[in-house]
Specification:
- Its cofactor is Mg(2+); Mn(2+).
- It is an enzyme of class 1 (oxidoreductase).
- Pathway: Isoprenoid biosynthesis; isopentenyl diphosphate biosynthesis via DXP pathway; isopentenyl diphosphate from 1-deoxy-D-xylulose 5-phosphate: step 1/6.
- This is 1-deoxy-D-xylulose 5-phosphate reductoisomerase.
- By secondary structure, this protein is of the alpha/beta class.
- About 45% of the residues lie in helices and about 15% in strands.
- It has 17 helices and eleven strands.
- The strands form two sheets. It has a seven-stranded parallel sheet, with helices on both faces.
- β5, α5 (about 110-115) and β6 form a beta-alpha-beta unit.
- The longest helix is centred in the C-terminal third of the chain and has 24 residues, at about 370-395.
- The radius of gyration is 21 Å and the shape is globular.
- The chain binds nicotinamide-adenine-dinucleotide and magnesium ion.
- Nicotinamide-adenine-dinucleotide binds near residues 127 and 215.
Amino acid sequence: MTTRRVVSVLGSTGSIGVSTLDVIARHPADFSVYALAANRSVELMLAQCLQFQPQYAVMMDESSASKLQEKLPAESAVQVLHGEEALARVASDDEVDCVMAAIVGAAGLPSTLAAAHAGKTLLLANKESLVMGGHLLMQAVRDSGARLLPIDSEHNAIFQCLPVDPQARPGRDGVSKVLLTASGGPFRTWTREQMHKATPDQACAHPNWSMGRKISVDSASLMNKGLEFIEACWIFDLSPEQVEVVVHPQSIIHSMVQYLDGSVLAQLGNPDMRTPIAYGLGWPQRLASGVAPLDLVATARLDFAAPDESLFPCLRLAREAVATGGTAMAICNAANEIAVEAFLAGRVRFTDIPVLIERVLETTPVVEPTSLAVVESADEEARAQAVALLTDMNGKPEEASLA
Ligand code: NAD
Ligand code: MG
């Protein structure tokens, strides 16, 4: 590339963070790492600091930060920081060109927003921040002139299949809809009874993608597709009617754009997040990513089906949240985060996840998302409501089912 890009990687120790650093390591002349940020994984952060020599390493709490500081060699120039403010700072410092937003969950919103306000090239993996604060985030991107490059593989595919820079041309003349592909997750062929007994490890065993545990459970419940549905509406300024979910079990087509003249453009590739990550890092140039070339003959077939919303109610819940608007999407996201945490901790069944989300959506008031404070308070209220309902559910474990 012509100029060296200075990158902050937020969530560097996670699945997307590690893949991002893998791509960066393949192009040492093109990128320098300004900051790495993570929650509490001190050992991996230490190894990443030694390899990439960032100016800053940000841990979320003071104790992880001091552990990291102790382990770094005395002569190391890496400055160790901690906390939300430091995170927002390394997302928005003047020296930074490009921010990989790869923290999981609502915790990523303030730093993602900080990068957007500062006009950075924002590589957005953290879909929850857009689901929660889509209005605020897209407004910040427009006001500051930030460039949002979607890293979620489906949205990255749509971005690649749209005719021109979608931010530069709202309205999308000629596009009739986008076809958002879904693998269907590990429970695609399971019955409700089987899902009722599903364990966290079964939910996290995705057939095609290797990902963090939260998004893996979301993929199993199809809430991931629900969140991506909302994400597509925000990023590409589409109405919900313009987004159709299509189950495609092979995960070779990452999504498609259908045009008024009948053309459908698709982006294909092996299911490896280094492809969309390399696209975002190099844009508008293409970079080698380490992903094996697609072998279509070995793939042999591509199948498609409609999603079954009675077996996977999360998709419907996300669609209803878009229709409701306001803070309903933040409420849906928060309830889902609590439900997934409870499922991973063995406190509720897999089939309780949509039950809990629906109840929280029914009982938490929706308001206009006018500021970050309003969105954060809706998020908190929904979490508190979800925790209260969970306590009830645990008292009398029910044969939860939305049907
Ligand atoms: P992960 O759980 O593997 O990693 C999460 C990262 O965020 C870790 O580095 C962790 O330390 C950090 N983190 C967690 N809480 C934090 C906090 N409070 N403050 C600071 N850092 C914190 O998750 P992942 O699979 O890499 O997913 C990251 C994001 O990317 C999610 O929003 C997910 O939906 C999205 N995404 C992931 C994939 C994938 O293939 N993994 C694909 C598309 C989108
Ligand atoms: Mg995706």
